[in-house]
Design brief:
Strand content: 5-15%
Number of helices: 6
Radius of gyration: 28 Å
Strand order of the largest sheet: 2-1-3-4
Distance between the termini: 83 Å
CATH superfamily of the largest domain: Rhodanese-like domain
Number of strands: 4
Number of domains: 2
CATH architecture of the largest domain: 3-Layer(aba) Sandwich
Shape: elongated
Largest sheet: 4 strands, parallel
Length: about 170
């Protein structure tokens, strides 16, 4: 025959289940806080996170060079083009004759740039939403190069007009 648990056993079991439920809720709350903090860190609040979408760089127009002038400068070899993208992206395709100076490895690649600080340089990256070309331009100006401009449309703009690509 079936016997019902006594009242004291029910109270003890309910108390234990309640403690377990409280512990689970407490841990879930802590996990939610950490997930929220991580999301803000990675994607950003107001676009300042690690993976936030960079906004188009606004700068003085004299620091930019765009079509058709950039193609003319490239064709006549009047400047050295400097690709600010990663080495892997550079190998997949770049403006022919460009030098690869990834923005996160500038110090290692300064030796690849012309020693004459008067040499015209044009920095570029992937597209108009990529701030790396602008940042690299400022770093190179800070290293004493006097004639540095950036090509805001980047490689996508170059390709969109059907200009050739170099690969390695």
């Amino acid at each position: 025959m079936y016997s019902y648990p006594s009242q004291s056993q029910d109270d003890g079991q309910n108390s234990s289940e309640l403690r377990t439920l409280r512990q689970i809720m407490k841990e879930l709350f802590i996990v939610c806080i950490w997930v929220s903090f991580g999301a803000v860190t990675i994607w950003g609040a107001d676009g300042f996170g690690f993976l936030s979408t960079p906004q188009h760089v606004q700068s003085h127009p004299a620091l930019q060079v765009d079509f058709p002038a950039v193609y003319k400068i490239w064709k006549q070899k009047q400047a050295v083009f400097v690709d600010a993208r990663s080495a892997a992206h550079f190998r997949r395709g770049h403006i022919p004759g460009a030098i690869n100076v990834p923005i996160n490895r500038i110090v290692l690649h300064l030796k690849d740039l012309p020693t004459d600080k008067e040499t015209p340089l044009i920095t570029y990256c992937g597209s108009i939403v990529c701030p790396n070309a602008y940042q690299l331009m400022n770093v190179l100006l800070g290293h004493g190069y006097r004639d540095v401009r950036f090509f805001p449309r980047g490689l996508r703009g170059w390709q969109a007009l059907g200009h050739p690509l170099g690969t390695e």
